[in-house]
Design goal:
- The protein folds into 2 domains: 13-19 and 76-172, PH-domain like, CATH 2.30.29; 23-73.
- Residues 169-173 have low confidence and may be disordered.
- It is α+β, with helices and mostly antiparallel strands.
- The two termini are 29 Å apart.
- It is elongated, with a radius of gyration of 24 Å.
- The chain has helices at 25-41, 51-74, 113-118, 141-172; strands spanning 13-17, 77-81, 84-89, 95-100, 106-110, 120-126, 133-139.
- A hairpin with a 5-residue loop joins strand 3 (84-89) and strand 4 (95-100).
- Helix 1 (25-41) runs antiparallel to helix 2.
């Protein structure tokens, strides 16, 4: 259902997603290897080394190479609504970029061989004025591309209809 002319449409959530989790593959593999090596070496270390050194090294590896990449991945979200696209990034200091569907933009999709294998792509949105907005490793990229194209079309139709309704009221006065 479309709202009557001149009445702003309600903003609704269409999708919220993160980059594909395949970026965490090496972190998960390292986590398994670290636990295996720690379990094997615990109590079997040569004379100058102690078990607390092994545990602190394993903890440091897990913190820096497993937990930190996971938190970075979790802190980046993309939200598509009926009015705009919102990209949020950052752990401490948050960065937020928005792009309105009503202004219109071009959609460029790039897929490498690995991205084709996983069904992901890099989608670049450019409105010609601001810096292009890059959505990297977008899962279900074809569906996201179709959704964005549909939202541009609907938003521009609504904007045109509202402009026509506004012009008619001035013409009749």
């Amino acid at each position: 259902m479309m709202p009557p002319p001149g009445v702003p449409s309600e903003e609704r959530l269409i999708a919220r997603f993160r980059a594909h989790a395949r970026r965490l593959f090496w972190s998960a593999l390292l986590l398994i290897a670290t636990f295996g090596a720690t379990a094997y070496l615990y109590g079997n270390l040569p004379a100058p080394f102690e078990d607390w050194m092994l545990l602190s090294a394993a903890g440091t590896i897990i913190l820096l190479l497993v937990v930190l990449p996971f938190v970075v991945w979790l802190s980046r979200t993309t939200t598509i609504t009926t009015r705009r696209i919102i990209v949020r990034r950052g752990i401490g200091a948050r960065q937020r970029r928005e792009m309105s569907h009503a202004r219109g933009y071009t959609i460029a999709v790039r897929r490498g061989p690995l991205q084709r294998l996983w069904g992901t792509a890099t989608i670049t949105l450019s409105n010609g004025v601001d810096d292009p907005l890059r959505l990297v490793e977008v899962p279900n990229a074809t569906l996201v591309h179709e959704t964005l194209a549909d939202q541009i079309e609907v938003s521009q139709i609504l904007a045109h209809r509202d402009a026509q309704a506004g012009g008619e009221s001035f013409a009749s006065a």
